[in-house]
Amino acid sequence: MKKQKYERPIINRISIAVSNKFGPKGKIDIISDIDGIPVKELVGKYGSPLYAISEKTLRETYNRAKQAFSTRYPKVQFAWSYKTNYLNAVCKLYHKLGSWAEVVSGFEYDKAIDNGVQGSNIIFNGPDKSEEDLTKAIKNGSLIHVDHFDELYMIMDLAEKMEETPKLAIRVNMDTGIYPQWDRFGFNYENGEAWNALNRIMLNENVDLVGLHTHIGTYILTPNAYGVAAYKLAELAVRIDKKYNHKIKYIDMGGGFASKNTLKGAYLPGTDTCPSFDDYAEAITNALINSEIDPEHLPTLFLETGRALIDDAGYLLGTVLANKRLADGRRSTIIDIGVNMLFTSFWYEHNIVPAQETTHHTEDTTIYGPLCMNIDVIRAAIQFPLLNKGDNVVINRIGAYNMTQWLQFITFRPNVILIDTEGNTHIIRENETKKTFEQLERVPEYLR
Amino acid sequence: MNIKKDIAISDSGFVFDPTTGESYSLNPIGVEILTLLKEGNDQQEITDFIIQRYEIDKSTFENNYYDFINMLKKFNLIEAEA
Ligand SMILES: Cc1ncc(COP(=O)(O)O)c(C=O)c1O
Domain for residue A363, yes or no? Predict the structure, then answer.
């Protein structure tokens, strides 16, 4: 007699409530392959855990975003926000697609240069630009976005000393009707500080005002906030033109479009609440086109979109290490992906699914990472099927920030692979080894 | 170990406990084991029965069996030892 397929015995209490904190009991999704390559095969070849980036999804997402804006506005330029994911292969893909670079440190700046970006196509943001960084940026004709007056005066001094004319924009913060208002970066619109900074720039002959910049926040769910912001920047451009007969070359709306991830505590999943690129594009381009800006001199629209471009292209593949019962009877599943590799788990309820067919029975489960720390919780409460030790799991939509904010702890950061559009896989960052760390450490003579 | 005498087990995988009014859902193998327990089989007998019928090794099943029994205890479906 042929034996039957086994599945472990389970029993669940039926609760009357339609859905509890563990979420609705629906169909169990699985992700068994990434762009046609089985998860098992990828993990077998490159190890577990493993970061994988889909070039196909990256391109499709970029093209959708590009399309949304360029069908509504004549001059659009994306600048890849390096901090979101600065693996060189990823940056190069965006540059190949036509993106400039948006950087916030000397390290990122040098990376952009090494990735072949022309100095004049680099936007230099952030509050921490050293004199050395600024000197380089001025020499290369990069677009320097001034964050505060101390920086502005340093630039003016350098410009005079270097006998160069740096190209400047100011970062403007403002009330767009959303909370929290990011007022710690740049110059405030409502209290006149931004206007004041613009006047000081216009009155100094050694610097050239080329743009206006804002970044109103991140994971912004209300497109209308962008409409308000674009309108306010347009208003500044018009005032500058009136007073100095000087045309602003670009308006940079920063990043901040939401990805389809679900925020912690959100009532509905991000897939239901996240606006589309078209929604954001409609709000921004309408505000610019309907503003008082002379239509003959429409500024280029810059976008520094980060998470909304790359999140969907990134996957984290892992393996079940063990199942346990907690003291109160809840199931816990331990996987080899810790929160140190999934930094965004501090604000997202990440989607995690099995990589192979499972029973359709689910249990209230807590999913832990392997770190010996209580905070290492990937999902505190999820309806999850019973997986066995050695089974694979996939966390999708992790392309943004995880490969830059990851923390090395207890063990090494794993391989990152790129799956190209032909289905070939390439390691784009090798897994770390003991040697990686030993190279940097020094033991004082007396301790040897 | 005694399963509560008065619980009702349906073939479709539902269990009703009239003393508490609680209902439970089980997968088919869960129903099978619960029924075997109710009929008075001990762990050895149940293990033999299951590994003969299913593609599973003894130690994995034992691991799962104890986990299942713990859940039955947690849900008070097992009578306290006399
Ligand atoms: C100045 C600037 N531009 C762009 C971005 C990218 O933002 P996001 O990933 O939300 O699109 C950031 C992120 O913090 C930023 O600070």
Answer: yes
